[in-house]
């Protein structure tokens, strides 16, 4: 049975740009109050402040924190605050893990890349983009903030099965993220909590534009998508809202494509 999301709360990790930003705004339009965690320089403070005001202008609460979402200290300081904000209204209805910070360095040195990836860079990428999902889920469950009917979404990508010269560490992190999603889904099933990974199609975001090979990748994706366009952040936001309008936990443990059939079309010769 579909239900309204109005008055519930979401926690968006990576809320200030790209897909995370779109999800925060999309859920706010559904009447969801937003707690956002982002990690930005002072140069973006005005832009983030504008986002917060836009969300509040939709008639909901918005509490944003500029902090490293992968740090234990951040969880330690924010979870009591989140409990105070949300405890009386059922805790966190929707947790979104949309952290896109990792090392875009090849595993081996070659022309143009004199230094290969280091152990520290590899470990940081896995910790931020994959393991932090587990740590946030653990702490939110321990605090009683994820309850029956809650939804957990992890943002993954087709990079789990495709290779780009600089994308190895992020690809490994996304693969681990999908594995963590399946494990958490199994362990949270008895609590009535659904956990899924959303695999967006190629989406022009600040994270994508940091990939050295992004221009050619975007061009190929646009040719492959049968819709004749790339995925937009709002496409993913709509999927999150739709999947969250039920208390059921029976759709869980999946990697769900939100890509307009881009990945399937890429295997053939679409439009030729």
Summarize the structure.
The protein has 9 helices and 7 strands, in the order βαβαβαβαβαβαααβα. It is of the alpha/beta class and 272 residues long.
Describe this structure in words.
Helix content is 42%, strand content 14%. It has helices spanning 18-29, 45-56, 72-86, 119-142, 168-188, 206-209, 214-224, 233-243, 262-266, and strands at 9-13, 33-38, 62-66, 94-97, 151-156, 194-200, 255-258. It has a seven-stranded parallel beta sheet, with helices on both faces. The N and C termini lie far apart (42 Å). Mean pLDDT is 89; it is low at 268-272.
Descriptive labels:
alpha/beta; seven-stranded parallel beta sheet; 272 residues; Rossmann fold; 9 helices
Shape: globular
Runs in which pLDDT lies below 50 for 5 or more consecutive residues are: 268-272
**Helical run tally:** 9
Hey, roughly how much beta strand do the residues contain? 5-15%
Largest sheet, strands/sense/barrel: 7 strands, parallel
The succession of helices and strands, N to C, reads EHEHEHEHEHEHHHEH
Specify the structural class: alpha/beta
How many DSSP E strands? 7
C-alpha Rg (nearest Å): 18 Å
The figure for the number of domains is 1
| CATH level-3 fold name | Rossmann fold
């Amino acid at each position: 049975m579909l239900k309204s999301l109005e008055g519930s709360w979401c926690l968006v990790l990576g809320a200030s740009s790209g897909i995370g930003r779109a999800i925060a705004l999309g859920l706010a339009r559904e009447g969801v109050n937003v707690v956002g965690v982002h990690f930005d320089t002072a140069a973006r403070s005005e832009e983030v402040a504008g986002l917060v005001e836009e969300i509040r202008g939709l008639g909901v609460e918005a509490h944003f924190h500029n902090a490293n979402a992968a740090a234990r200290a951040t969880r330690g300081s924010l979870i009591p605050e989140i409990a105070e904000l949300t405890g009386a209204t059922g805790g966190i209805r929707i947790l979104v893990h949309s952290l896109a910070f990792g090392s875009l360095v090849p595993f081996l040195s070659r022309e143009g890349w004199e230094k290969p990836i280091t152990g520290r860079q590899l470990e940081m990428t896995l910790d931020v983009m994959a393991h932090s999902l587990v740590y946030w889920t653990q702490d939110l469950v321990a605090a009683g903030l994820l309850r029956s009917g809650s939804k957990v979404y992890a943002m993954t990508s087709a990079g789990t099965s495709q290779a780009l010269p600089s994308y190895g560490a992020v690809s490994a992190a996304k693969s681990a993220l999908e594995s963590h999603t399946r494990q958490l889904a199994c362990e949270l099933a008895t609590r009535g909590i659904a956990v899924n990974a959303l695999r967006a199609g190629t989406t022009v975001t600040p994270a994508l534009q940091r990939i050295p090979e992004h221009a050619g990748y975007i061009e190929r994706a646009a040719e492959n998508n049968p819709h004749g366009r790339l995925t937009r952040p709002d496409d993913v936001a709509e999927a999150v809202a739709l999947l969250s309008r039920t208390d059921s936990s029976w759709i869980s443990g999946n990697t769900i494509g939100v890509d307009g059939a881009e990945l399937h079309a890429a295997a053939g010769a679409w439009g030729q």
